[in-house]
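note to self: dont lose this again. the chain is below, predicted strucutre after it. 327 aa total, dont forget to put it in the shared folder this time
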Amino acid sequence: MKQSTQILSIFMLTCIGASCSAGAAQPEPGGTTTFSQTSETTPGNLTIVNPAIPASIKFADQNIELDRIDMYERFDRELTSMLYTHGNTLLLIKRANKYFPIIEPILKKNGVPTDLIYLACIESSLNQRAYSPAKAAGIWQFMPATAKQYGLEVNEWVDERYNIEKETEAACRYLKKAYGEYGNWESAAAAYNGGTNRITTQLDAQLADSAFDLYLVDETSRYMFRILAAKMILENPREFGFYLTPEQLYQPVEYDTVDVNTEIGDWAQWAQKHGITYSILREANPWIRAKNLPNRSGKTYKVKIPRQKSLYRSTQDVKVYNQAWVK
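---
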């Protein structure tokens, strides 16, 4: 029985009727996954399906072997956790259709493997307005000092950590610098979470070449495996029971862009003059952080104005960035 047929087991963990059952997951040649059927069910017809763990997974053109017990168990933990956090994982797939078309070309342009897009998935679940208790912000979750270090403007009027294009460019600069230091992308990714000072110190202290071989605090130790789990699910959600139609995916918004290089006394009035509400202006440009913009330096800001047809589901162009995400 194919894993995709177990959608009720995966989404609702409840089977209707006494005949519903499933067994252990088994990998098929080529990486697809099926479930062997058994006649056993748990009390109350509640069936919990364990995901199949592959022998290896490819990341940034590197084959990551999962035979070593710590590698297997760490990956199994994150894949299982992500599969059974259904709401967040569904939202991640829907948002990917909206934001991957923006992020992935920037990674390619900067020579960063596109698999690093899953780092952003783990950082923020692709929530453009994400803000952590530690004051990290945006899809890439930059801290204020690090954001400024990598060229982003952060103040009470403008916070470019919420500018998806600029924050992705900054993330590329960070990751490429870390890769230059370590020579592998898993250590660069670990440094994104734990900081380059910590990863460099621990690689030296533990006589290791890869973050996979480090004993680290739990959050950083789990981080790379969460990225791998996100990659595995988003590459083929249906194999794990996530079924969506094209219309259920969040659609990219089409914009016109207005250059602003002067002071803005009231963004609400500015928005009204451009045919949108203040709320829509802020949603389209979350880097705007106040009702006004002094702009004493005369810097040019590119302000996005959503096209009217992109504001309504009935007139949006339905696009699917990855056909694996839909039926």
